[in-house]
Specification:
This protein has 342 residues and is of the alpha/beta class. The chain folds into two domains: 2-138 and 279-322, Rossmann fold (3-Layer(aba) Sandwich), CATH 3.40.50; 141-275, Rossmann fold (3-Layer(aba) Sandwich). Helix content is 39%, strand content 17%. It is built from eleven helices and eleven strands. The chain has helices at 15-30, 42-46, 81-92, 103-114, 139-160, 175-183, 198-210, 249-261, 281-299, 319-322, 331-338; strands at 2-7, 33-37, 49-52, 96-101, 119-123, 163-168, 188-190, 216-221, 265-269, 305-310, 313-318. A five-stranded mixed β-sheet has the order 3-2-1-4-5, with helices on both faces. The chain has a four-stranded parallel β-sheet with strand order 7-8-6-9, with helices on both faces. It has a two-stranded antiparallel sheet with strand order 10-11. Strand 7 (188-190), helix 7 (198-210) and strand 8 form a beta-alpha-beta unit. The chain is elongated. It starts with a strand and ends with a helix. The protein binds 6-O-phosphono-beta-D-fructofuranose (F6P). 6-O-phosphono-beta-D-fructofuranose (F6P) binds next to loops.
Length: 342
């Protein structure tokens, strides 16, 4: 068989480990051949590809990013996507596609599979918010980077008796904020799932000061919002999937907390540094396991499935089921962090 591989959406440490696993096991174990499409769904739409071989995928396991490039191209924004991708596949003699992506890339994969295209999904996102899997690779690396940053900010916040607001990624789900906040000993954590009350945030900071701790670390997910009518927030431009380009809540909080409490407050936005660089050992192993499961599924003709981690085991779930809902932070998860606030 010849199989196409693509990586779509925001990049994430571990993508290259999946590509390597698919190609290595696919060639050595099954005798298949591979093409890699460039920049997510743009590749098969425009027939932009490169051959993937054992040689071309050597040495990429510890490399961040993706050797195939990525984009937020939404194939479904074009009415003829399924036909164009089918034409590309026929012209290259492909039996199927392995799409490595998050909610958008895999949501499109599920729809294209319903339209008759043979696709297998592999879940990725630093946000860890895909419904069909317990965990996504990239998340462990992102929380390690964010925790390292919080540790560093802690010592300077303490020296200068300042509050430091740390804005981390997390559009719909606050997993990065929650886990790095717990690991870094944050005094307040704000996540998209729970609109926050700015009065309560300031109360916690004042209480901390009253206890003789003249600094605080506030970790905020970029998608966190204040309860309606309590604080002004800015609008943002959107991408092809209709998602707003987020960022800015950290700066808003910096001003609001300083104005309301009178304590000096500064914001740090971690941004794309959370997605860059080498994956942790955990993410390399998870990405490799998912890549092997994906090529095993393709070899078995099990199209329309996604490789997923369930209770520490790698299994297949139906793509439609996997993208049906996002996995967000529950009250129970949040309560663990809340015990340490203020
Ligand atoms: O989807 C992962 C993610 O890193 C989100 O946390 C973030 O909101 C988004 O991507 C940023 O996307 P971009 O790199 O396109 O600005």
């Amino acid at each position: 068989m010849r199989i196409g591989v693509l990586t779509g959406g925001g990049d994430c440490p571990g993508l290259n480990a999946v590509i390597r696993a698919v190609v290595r096991k696919g060639i050595d174990g099954y005798g298949h051949a591979f093409v890699g499409f460039r920049d997510g769904w743009r590749g098969p739409l425009e027939s932009d590809y490169q051959e993937l071989t054992i040689e071309s995928t050597r040495g990429i396991l510890p490399r961040g990013g993706t050797i195939l490039g990525s984009s937020r191209t939404n194939p479904l924004a074009r009415g003829d996507a399924a036909d164009r991708i089918r034409e590309t596949m026929e012209s290259l003699g492909l039996s199927g596609l392995i799409a490595i992506g998050g909610e958008d890339t895999l949501g499109a994969a599920a729809k294209l599979h319903s339209a008759g295209l043979p696709v297998i999904g592999v879940p990725k996102t630093i946000d860890n918010d895909l419904g069909g899997t317990d965990l996504t690779f990239g998340f462990d690396t992102a929380i390690q980077i964010a925790t390292d940053a919080i540790d560093r900010l802690h010592s300077t916040a303490e020296s200068h008796h300042r509050n430091l607001v740390v804005e981390v990624m997390g559009r719909h789900a606050g997993w990065i904020a929650l886990y790095s906040g717990i690991a870094g000993g944050a005094d307040v954590i704000l996540i998209p799932e729970r609109p926050f009350d700015i009065d309560e945030v300031c109360r916690l900071i004042r209480r901390r000061h009253a206890r003789g701790r003249y600094f605080a670390i506030i970790v905020v997910a970029e998608g966190a919002t204040p309860s309606e009518g309590t604080m002004e927030v800015l609008g943002a431009a959107t991408d092809e999937f209709g998602h707003a380009r987020l960022g800015g809540i950290g700066q808003r909080l910096e001003r609001e907390i300083e104005d309301r409490t009178g304590f000096e407050t500064r914001a740090t936005v971690l941004g794309h540094v959370q997605r860059g660089g080498t994956p942790t050992a955990f993410d390399r192993v998870l990405a490799t396991r998912l890549g092997v499961a994906a090529i095993d599924a393709a070899d078995g003709g099990r199209w329309g499935q996604m490789a997923s981690l369930r209770s520490m085991r790698v299994e297949l779930v139906r793509l439609e089921e996997a993208v049906a809902s996002l996995r967000t932070v529950t009250d129970e998860d949040f309560e663990v962090a809340r015990a340490f606030f203020g």
